[in-house]
Automatic annotation (TrEMBL):
Phosphoribosyl-dephospho-CoA transferase MdcG C-terminal domain span: 99-210
UniProt keyword Nucleotidyltransferase present: yes
Name of the encoding gene: mdcG
Pfam families: MdcG, MdcG_N
Annotated protein name in UniProt: Phosphoribosyl-dephospho-CoA transferase
Length: 218
């Protein structure tokens, strides 16, 4: 786990607050939010830069309907864990109680293949959240969310492996690809042949090349 970094945390990173009550004092929190629980439960960094100088974060409750987005000051962050750190240290092998879950069994089965291929990947979504703290939000039907960092277009061999995993895995895999300009769903690009909805810090828009984005004309 990393202490508060010099650079702002990236979307999908998990952050812990030094003093949750103070950090969220200006937010109109929903009733399901437990400030004491946030002492050891992370928030998820979002894509939203409407407040320059602040970090957009999301809080999650016990159900899918319990989601709340807000902003915090960078100085409020005590610790950061990235999806890539969870993958690199094989965090699931430290949580034997989760190994019975299909998403975690699949994660263990494909991790070495992803590393051997040279793909820069991490664990995101419910799996990443559950591996980073003591609170498990996974269940038997949970998808496996992966994040692939790609500063340049993915190599053909990487696309082939990732497409194969999405097609053949016994658990649904949701692979998000993060470019310098935003993130997109790999499955969408595979189905369209290129065009994707790129999620950026300033909102989503359709583009043909997420590494050299310009809005689609139609």
């Amino acid at each position: 786990m990393s202490p508060h970094p010099l650079a702002p945390p990236a979307p999908h990173d998990l952050v812990w607050l030094d003093d949750p009550a103070s950090a969220l004092a200006r937010a109109a929190l929903p009733a399901w939010v437990s400030l004491p629980a946030l002492d050891d439960t992370p928030l998820v960094v979002r894509r939203d830069r409407r407040r320059p100088g602040e970090i957009p974060v999301g809080l999650r409750g016990r159900t899918r309907a319990e989601r709340f987005g807000t902003w915090i000051a960078p100085s409020a962050i005590r610790m950061v864990v990235t999806p890539m750190e969870l993958a690199a240290r094989r965090a699931w092998r430290l949580r034997p109680e989760l190994m019975a879950l299909p998403a975690i069994r699949l994660l263990d089965a494909i991790a070495d293949r992803l590393d051997d291929a040279g793909i820069h990947w991490g664990v995101a979504g419910s799996a990443g959240f559950s591996l980073a703290c003591a609170r498990n939000v996974l269940h038997a039907d949970s998808d496996l969310d992966l994040l692939v960092n790609a500063d340049r277009p993915l190599a053909a061999s990487h696309l082939k492996l990732l497409a194969e995993l999405q097609r053949a895995a016994p658990v649904r895999i949701d692979i998000q690809v993060a470019t310098p300009y935003g993130g997109f769903a790999l499955l969408e690009r595979l189905r369209s042949g290129g065009r994707v909805l790129l999620k950026t810090d300033h909102g989503p828009y359709l583009c043909d090349d997420p590494w050299q984005p310009s809005p689609c004309k139609s």
